[in-house]
Automatic annotation (TrEMBL):
UniProt keyword annotation of Methyltransferase present: no
Domain called Sigma-54 factor interaction: residue spans: 314-513
Residue ranges of the region described as Disordered: 286-316
Transmembrane segments: none
Coiled coil: none
Keyword set, alphabetical order: ATP-binding, DNA-binding, Nucleotide-binding, Transcription, Transcription regulation
UniProt protein name: GAF domain-containing protein
Amino acid sequence: MSEALPALPSSPVLRASWLRSREHGLAPDQHLPDGILARTDFAEHIEANARLLAFSRPAIENLYRQIGGPSSMVLLADERGLILSALGNTEFLDRAARVALSPGAEWSEASVGTNAIGTALHTGHTVAVRGAEHYLDRNRFLTCIATPILAPGGGMLGILDVSTDVRANISHAGALLRTTAELIEHSLIEHLEGGFVTIRFHSRAELVDGPLEALAVFDEERRLVASNRAARSLLKLDRAHPSADFDHCFATGWATLLGLATGNGGAFPLRAVDGRSFVGRAALRDRSIAPRAPRPPPAQCAGEPGPGGQLAQMSQSDPRVAAAIATLRANAAAHVPLLIEGETGTGKTHLIRAFHADHRRHADAPLVIIDGSSLHGAGASAELADRLGQAAEGTLFVVEIDALPNAMQRALFGTRTSRGATRIIAATRKRVAHLADSGRLELAHFAAAGGLQLSLPPLRERDDFDELVRLFVREACPERAIHVSPDALTLLRRHRWPGNLSELRSQLRLTLALMGDNANELCPQDIPPELFDDDSGENR
């Protein structure tokens, strides 16, 4: 650090960024790296950010119309600085692409030094970088302004950026940029999946029900699950990582609020815990149909399932379930055989139906499901071959794979290379390791074909039990919102659920049916005592 940096910016923020750029080993005159992701890798980033892309698109188009000018563009980047989309004048887009300012390139400080996107990511605030303030020489024809897009639950979701020719005057862009980011955040919360009650509030009555209102979403256990910048400011919460429950935010009682939320939806006085007064509106969230993001433009998601894909609708709050879904998605194009272990009722068939729907090669690609225990006798091999033929260009899903004779297991996985368009998926209720050790499952051909193993945890071991209960309650009673009390959840967790998800869903449907059409809360007394008759004493 003894050698002085040339032409250090006067801004303390940018000066610190230049020093970080040097620590990253960057030189101002270094050559352009190969920073564009491969098509398949970029497609994965597009899928991971599908909701952000979809809900930001209208706001970005409006921002570009207001910015105007032949030498400007609006960029959307993810939380690591990878550019997801670019909208602008064709000639300027081509010019920017020469310095990799285009979709698929990473613009973090570690990659390209001081720039608006990367420095906004590092600081968490709006940043402007003009001309020579860029660390790399090749980027100094640009003036860029970037601001963070905050995630509904906390943290940073991405970066919104306006970039122009250095000679252009975009002094008005900063305010427009921040307002657009807030509109995107507002839209993401409005279409959030989950949550129990939404509160709209502000100290100024005229701002409620408008884009500048404060928004806060709480779950059944009164925890804050989503909020926008205005809510975090008014409630004095951490801007980046808000964490609170209802009773630490408002003095108005929870029961009073729920009564207002189920009423006529009119405005009411809302008091904060520090005595301040707001005007508020509250409403139970309509979760009869899970909100889905509009599909991004085809150019942004070619060949990829949209944000409403069936896998996206499955609960992924449990790390083992999330890992299984991530593995399926990552290997969707490879068509390697898959082997899934999981107890009865853990959702193996539901998972594969969703996977097939999202990643089939064409709309008519078949999904053929066969029970391995049904294949026996002299005609078993011929029947398996017939089912393989039916599944051509689609998916053959064999449940109870360990019930097949070893020779048929070898034949099944050995046909994969000659039937490259047919995906082979097998499942078992037992532990794969135990089956392999006992000789009931042969994995040599499976391994030779590059097979992957997945595991679905039993319900009693899942981290998302409460979320699943609420999901199944919404499915069973889509016409009305039903609150699941914390005590009811505690009681339900005491059961071991040997039938796993299937048993939980069936039991909740029965319980809700017995409660009647006017009930709006699932309480401990609604849960039949006989549910626990077969449980051991340690679970009582």
